[in-house]
Amino acid sequence: xxxxxxxxxxxxxxxxxxxxxxxxxxxxxxxxxxxxxxxxxxxxxxxxxxxxxxxxxxxxxxxxxxxxxxxxxxxxxxxxxxxxxxxxxxxxxxxxxxxxxxxxxxxxxxxxxxxxxxxxxxxxxxxxxxxxxxxxxxxxxxxxxxxxxxxxxxxxxxxxxxxxxxxxxxxxxxxxxxxxxxxxxxxxxxxxxxxxxxxxxxxxxxxxxxxxxxxxxxxxxxxxxxxxxxxxxxxxxxxxxxxxxxxxxxxxxxxxxxxxxxxxxxxxxxxxxxxxxxxxxxxxxxxxxxxxxxxxxxxxxxxxxxxxxxxxxxxxxxxxxxxxxxxxxxxxxxxxxxxxxxxxxxxxxxxxxxxxxxxxxxxxxxxxxxxxxxxxxxxxxxxxxxxxxxxxxxxxxxxxxxxxxxxxxxxxxxxxxxxxxxxxxxxxxxxxxxxxxxxxxxxxxxxxxxxxxxxxxxxxxxxxxxxxxxxxxxxxxxxxxxxxxxxxxxxxxxxxxxxxxxxxxxxxxxxxxxxxxxxxxxxxxxxxxxxxxxxxxxxxxxxxxxxxxxxxxxxxxxxxxxxxxxxxxxxxxxxxxxxxxxxxxxxxxxxxxxxxxxxxxxxxxxxxxxxxxxxxxxxxxxxxxxxxxxxxxxxxxxxxxxxxxxxxxxxxxxxxxxxxxxxxxxxxxxxxxxxxxxxxxxxxxxxxxxxxxxxxxxxxxxxxxxxxxxxxxxxxxxxxxx
Length: 722
Fold this sequence. Notes:
By secondary structure, this protein is α+β, with helices and mostly antiparallel strands.
């Protein structure tokens, strides 16, 4: 009984609080109405209270709750809908200045704005006359940032100033609205696709990835995928009910790539709610759901149409990037248990099971087209299909240039391509005469970024024989000399540009496509399988006969044995050992065995149908892989567009533009709807120079007035202060 009495003595009173109160901590509750009037209850007693118009009293209550250790700083910050850093700043202001330090300072600029209505009209007029941003800024006496702000106000409605504290009242880490009702409707066949619902809030993780949307819309990905696959259509043409529609599936892949998880299983390593906010949903699709829906799209066998539609849109939207096309093959190595044909993996210098894809890039190295090559196909053999696809994109009157490496060397094919209206640009293959030192002259070329490239070049006409009838292919040979090592690199082309340095620069810029492959492998899952389905290989195609290989090996072994014996006989004759009869008998048997093996090898066909030697051979099904490649390629191109936009505002853009974008994509941001505008306010980055570059990029993208996909809300980007 004594122990029970001691327990009763230390028990706290029962915390009775009015209905609607929110719990802050043990024994601490907060009740606040719509007008901002609030009361803090401690163990049921009203301890602090304030009027809705008295922001200083509200802040004082929050500060004293923490100082009295009634609740932790984080608990109070969440309850009062404030950032934890903001609450820490209130405590410092109260310590240094008392209650006076908690009185909010007036919002907005401290002096009159230069950006008057008349000035904005003058800016828009000068911009519409064709002047660039710097010229408009000089003419109007304001900064380029103010010019962008004025142009952005013309493109989207300005943020309402009725309530200056509205942005600070956004709920930190707000959870999206649950969509269970719509999921049930989809299960009952009553919903084709869940519409996006924007989750307003502050400090929402990964919201920086929304910066990709203007550039992604410019690639035509969402438009092309909707036109080809339709929203929610099944393989039989009937509409299929689904919660995650085509827009959600495509954007889920896009955002996963941007945050570093390009494979479907990567969705298990990221917060599904964070991806859901990006999609306008409560959470991202699960891995099994994403794979299932992608398999449904693959069943329609329209991936080639999607890739071609994206390429056609790219050609129309970026004519400055078209005219020169880089072509190369990429081998996707296979490590599974199926019997897949081998291919040479150049980067690993070995032959191993894998599939070869042929890629076409524009002159900037952005992806354009991709398809699965036949097993064993050479680059020279693929060039015929390359020309057909490029001709379909650029029209019959164009004379495009195809640039490729020595794998496509075939002078006979070059003559055919020239007759078909194509220019070629490639390295010369095989032995050739060196140019004398006197033939080289110093030449320079300035690229799009203003960088000057210096070359020592020799330029002359050459003829290359391409068949037994001594028919020749006439072309131009440009040779580059490396003065330090004395190495000469010979380039063959049919173009007649007077500037040889331009052609040398174009040839040596093939590294752009190599960088495309390297970056795609590292960040966009270029080598990912994406699907485990296989299709039977062509059983009738001819392949090397293993029996012929073994027969040839036996012939080589017999010849080596005879050669060694002949050498031994010569040494024996000099030393006086052995008898002529024994030697003649041994060599007679050896030559008979050699003749027998040669006859057996000749009787064995060099090639046989694949079905005879590998009846279980299969190929990897490329349909679902191609859909994913199309989405990733468009995402890469959109990222490249952002890198080009940010380059003028970032001194180290040549080396760090993409790493800067990666930091932006993973940054948190505030999301707020104001009228018809969706404001995305991104948190400052790791360094002031990076934050300044981000601010300039936000201004560039806001001017585009891009709508958030699936809504009529116009995106407006900015960087939060502080």
